[in-house]
Specification:
Length: 141
């Protein structure tokens, strides 16, 4: 199943309408290489001849982020599609400073550890974000 098919299935399952703007943003993110800003996504769709305004794109991205279908990558200032295609848990990134590749993973033990560290400070953590920078396997060799 492609990213777009998966994302559309999740929207339907959660009771969201698959409107044309939603479908267009999903398809653009599905084709994108690496992190994209809402402006980049707009340009990708603009090439297809159907331009959407930034506010609409931004709203769709926010919805997709809330469903764990898209993630914000802070260090790259953009958004990427979820590669794990699982709704649950915190999705984390390893970002290569050599080739810019992103690798996504999930680790429940890490989540427990982070929540425990927060709890000791009197805080109830609900979500964790990690972006590790370094060198990927290819760039290390
Ligand atoms: Zn993900
Ligand atoms: Zn690399
Ligand atoms: Zn977590």
């Amino acid at each position: 199943m492609s990213f777009a098919e998966h994302a559309i299935a999740v929207l339907r399952e959660k009771g969201y309408k698959v409107t044309r703007p939603r479908r267009q943003v999903i398809e653009a993110i599905g084709r994108a290489e690496g992190a994209m800003s809402p402006g980049d996504i707009g340009k990708m769709m603009g090439e297809g001849g159907r331009h959407l305004d930034q506010v609409t794109i931004y709203r769709v991205i926010n919805l997709l982020c809330s469903l764990n279908l898209v993630h914000r990558v802070f260090s790259q200032g953009g958004y990427v599609r979820c590669d794990l295609l699982e709704e649950e848990g915190c999705h984390r990134f390893l970002i290569c400073r050599g080739c810019g590749s992103l690798q996504e993973f999930r680790d429940e033990a890490l989540c427990r550890q982070e929540s425990e560290a927060a709890r000791k400070l009197g805080f109830r953590a609900e979500h964790h974000v990690t972006e590790s920078s370094g060198l990927c396997r290819d760039c290390r060799d």
